């Protein structure tokens, strides 16, 4: 609400252009009607931003890329992938023997892109849910035996999925398990689950501040994506293309 008020205040003060930088887009998971009478909240947020007067949106790793179609104004959906690749190469010694794993079928495109750029193999986990935030059964598709498994997802909320996935990977023979996430929401029992899970590290970007969570969990590490957003703002202000940021980390 504060963002909407600030956008509107800028607009009625005769600003020529208002760009809203929203690193973690709110209600991004409610992008479709998954059951009768359910709201499409992401569309509502898009409408409110447009009506308030926003001319341009900069965000990162939307849960569903079709959310960009909810807007009638330009949306730049930046990717954390270049920063993730850099972190893997710099912090995982045996990264050439790793396997990139998606904790669900919906993230297959994301992990195949990372696996291709690292020239390693990928696997995925098929999960079945009986109700929201509770995973009933998991099936691993791929061979992780004697390899470093890197779970990659766009966000983690209560962390039930990634913690179950980590247990599944260890039981399937993985030597180490890392989790790399763009948006670390970490609500409810998330921190206690991470502390109990067999992760070497849970790596998140700082689209959501993590200082408080890091005080309660030594496994959480942060990738700073502020330079990506800063460069996107600079390029947008100067009328330059932001396409370079889709595959590179600015120096």
UniProtKB/TrEMBL annotation:
Matching InterPro entries: PRib_PP_synth_CS (IPR000842), Pribosyltran_N (IPR029099), PRTase-like (IPR029057), PRTase_dom (IPR000836), Rib-P_diPkinase (IPR005946)
Start and end residues of each Ribose-phosphate pyrophosphokinase N-terminal domain: 1-53
Pathway(s): Metabolic intermediate biosynthesis; 5-phospho-alpha-D-ribose 1-diphosphate biosynthesis; 5-phospho-alpha-D-ribose 1-diphosphate from D-ribose 5-phosphate (route I): step 1/1
Primary enzyme class: transferase
Keyword Metal-binding: yes
GO molecular function: ATP binding; kinase activity; magnesium ion binding; ribose phosphate diphosphokinase activity
Known catalytic reactions: D-ribose 5-phosphate + ATP = 5-phospho-alpha-D-ribose 1-diphosphate + AMP + H(+)
Keywords on record: ATP-binding, Kinase, Magnesium, Metal-binding, Nucleotide biosynthesis, Nucleotide-binding, Transferase
GO terms, biological process: 5-phosphoribose 1-diphosphate biosynthetic process; purine nucleotide biosynthetic process; ribonucleoside monophosphate biosynthetic process
Keyword Kinase belongs to the record: yes
EC number assigned by the record: 2.7.6.1
Pfam families per record: Pribosyl_synth, Pribosyltran_N
Any single GO CC term annotated in Swiss-Prot or TrEMBL for this entry: cytoplasm
Lineage: superkingdom: Eukaryota
Its job: Catalyzes the synthesis of phosphoribosylpyrophosphate (PRPP) that is essential for nucleotide synthesis.
Complexes and interactors: Homodimer. The active form is probably a hexamer composed of 3 homodimers.
Family stated for the protein in its record: Belongs to the ribose-phosphate pyrophosphokinase family.
PANTHER family documented for this protein: RIBOSE-PHOSPHATE DIPHOSPHOKINASE FAMILY MEMBER, RIBOSE-PHOSPHATE PYROPHOSPHOKINASE 2
Protein name: ribose-phosphate diphosphokinase
Organism from which the protein derives: Myotis davidii
């Amino acid at each position: 609400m504060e963002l909407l008020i600030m956008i509107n205040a800028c607009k009625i003060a005769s600003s020529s252009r208002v760009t809203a930088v929203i690193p973690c887009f709110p209600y991004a998971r409610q992008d479709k009607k998954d059951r009768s009478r359910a709201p499409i909240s992401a569309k509502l947020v898009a409408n409110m931003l447009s009506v308030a007067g926003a001319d341009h949106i900069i965000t990162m790793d939307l849960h569903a890329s079709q959310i960009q179609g909810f807007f009638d104004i330009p949306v730049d959906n930046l990717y954390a992938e270049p920063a993730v690749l850099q972190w893997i190469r710099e912090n995982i010694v045996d990264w050439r023997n790793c396997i990139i794993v998606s904790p669900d079928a919906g993230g297959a495109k994301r992990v195949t892109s990372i696996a291709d750029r690292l020239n390693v193999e990928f696997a995925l986990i098929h999960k079945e849910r009986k109700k929201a935030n509770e995973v009933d059964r998991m099936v691993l598709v791929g061979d992780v035996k004697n390899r470093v498994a890197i779970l990659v997802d766009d966000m983690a909320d209560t962390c039930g999925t990634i913690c179950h996935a980590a247990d599944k990977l260890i039981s399937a023979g993985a030597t180490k398990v890392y989790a790399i996430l763009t948006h670390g929401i970490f609500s409810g029992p998330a921190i206690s689950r991470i502390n109990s899970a067999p992760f070497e590290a849970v790596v998140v970007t700082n689209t959501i501040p993590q200082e408080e969570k890091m005080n309660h969990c030594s496994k959480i590490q942060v990738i700073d994506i502020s330079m990506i957003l800063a460069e996107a703002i600079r390029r947008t202000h100067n009328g330059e293309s932001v396409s370079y940021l889709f595959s590179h980390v600015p120096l």
